[in-house]
Amino acid sequence: MKAAARERKPRHSNGRAAAAAAKNLSKVEPGRHLAVVRLFPACLLALLICLCVVKFFSSLSSQSQRIGTRSRMVSSWEGSASTNVPRIPVAPLIMGRVDEDISTRSPELGVVIVFVLAVSRVVTFLVETCKGLGFCHWKPLSYPMLILKGKQGSVFKNENFKNGTDSENKSRSERQVAISTENDPPPGKEESLTKSPQTAVSESEVPKPKSKISCDDKSKDEGFPYARPIVCHLSGDVRVSPATSSVTLTMPLQQGEAAARRIRPYARRDDFLLPLVREVAITSAASEGDAPSCNVSHGVPAVIFSIGGYTGNFFHDMADVLVPLYLTTFHFKGKVQLFVANYKQWWIQKYKPVLRRLSHRAVVDFDSDGDVHCFDHVIVGLVRDRDLILGQHPTRNPKGYTMVDFTRFLRHAYGLRRDKPMVLGETSGKKPRMLIISRRRTRKLLNLRQVAAMARELGFEVVVSEAGVGGGSGGVKRFASAVNSCDVLVGVHGAGLTNQAFLPRGGVVVQIVPWGRMEWMATNFYGAPAAAMELRYVEYHVAAEESSLARRYPREHAVFRDPMAIHGQGWKALADIVMTQDVKLNLRRFRPTLLRVLDLLQD
């Protein structure tokens, strides 16, 4: 009967051995029984070793400290020598997410983990072999391997363990494990634990800069005749309240008291400006409760300045606002909030291309805004150098900006593409282009048509235009484009010559200096700035006979005998007498000046 059964072929194609094993599962041959007897002690021993190592690993991880917002685990024995953290009562277990490689923090811990995994793999192999023999139908190591997966999940982030079903592994892409907090500090004291001498600070609790006020209030510099404006920097918890025209710095008592002061944030100081510029009060508060309540917070610094004073005159728009504003804010790369006192919408619109390039945020009207704004850094006032000059200075100009940088900035703001003049003779038949500035009120060029005709005879293409015609930013851009299209700018001393900033680098500026010892003003207001912009500069000094003053005053008058006596009487006398003259050029005398310009354009 048995022989017949052995000779019968199975109905399925799985093989004779599988069918016989299924049929005689309970019958074990003596050799296999002996192998099983020897295999079980080995399995038990390996399992015991694995559990011991896991227990040792758990005791190490229970001393780890949870530091920072990214749940970094730092073992207490690794940092105990430097931190001397006292032991405290055991806290309950908390659930945390491990997202950092622990083995990189402790090489010894990594070796332990690798060893535990190796032992567990051996035991798993033995168990699988036992199961293959048909004697093991349970899943040992499930609980130990679950612990190992959680403890070292961040060490082998891409490895999938097969201690359960595939569906279980796939559903646990991010394990949450129980982290022992045996040595965790009490709530609110986490910052006292450190791994090194550096203090670990939570990203959600970034400390504010230390409260500080510093003001540049040096009234005069050597060689600079005008009083320099006051500029104050405030760092820390700063509250800006336009409604009360105040800037308040929260300054704890231990940091010292800050003296209150009032300043006018306009980049020029003289007595005539007092009623024209709004004052801003700088105060301090001992605590946040004493400061105005904040309802708008900003993540960028703020600059508060005035466009009162002498603005509306193009020279003062540039010298008192735009150049100082560039020097104060350009290094912020647009990440700055501008507050404008003595707000004038037409002025903001007129220079909108410049303001938008300096700040990516809408300008705040300091006169009408009702919010309280909070900043970490506020600048009250504008840093300035001399008129249309940017010199090297360690604190006022630490970036080393120059007027060449500023004129390049202006060309970009207004979309002016031309950055160098023509070279005479370089292109056959092309003439150098000259723009003559005409004036309507004072310091008019009475024989402008004759001067333009002579320039054309000498080979110039001449354009005559009045500066400042047309309102808004469109008017500025139109005239800036006209100047940029030319190689030479000619004009009588006045604000119109400020448009030299739009000339291509290397262009020529010709200033017609009126009678009355105007050399200092001509050189410092336009001559020196032209050189700083890397323009070529030529002066023509008007003779007494070329001035309209010759028809208004006798030759014995002080304006001819001693012009400096007029200067000594103050700006009003100078403005009423010298600055009101017109000029009629002697063409024969002026001709060599134009020939010199042609020579300069050949280089």
TrEMBL record:
Gene Ontology molecular-function annotations: pentosyltransferase activity
Keywords carried by this UniProt record: Glycoprotein, Glycosyltransferase, Golgi apparatus, Membrane, Transferase, Transmembrane, Transmembrane helix
Recorded GO CC terms: Golgi membrane
Region: Disordered, residue numbers: 1-22, 159-218
Pathway membership, UniProt: Glycan metabolism
Annotated Pfam families: Glyco_transf_61 (PF04577)
Location in the cell: Golgi apparatus membrane
Membrane topology classification: Single-pass type II membrane protein
Organism, scientific name: Oryza rufipogon (Brownbeard rice)
Keyword presence, Coiled coil: no
Compositionally biased spans, kind Basic and acidic residues: 165-175, 205-218
Protein name: Glycosyltransferase 61 catalytic domain-containing protein
Membrane spanning residue stretches: 35-57
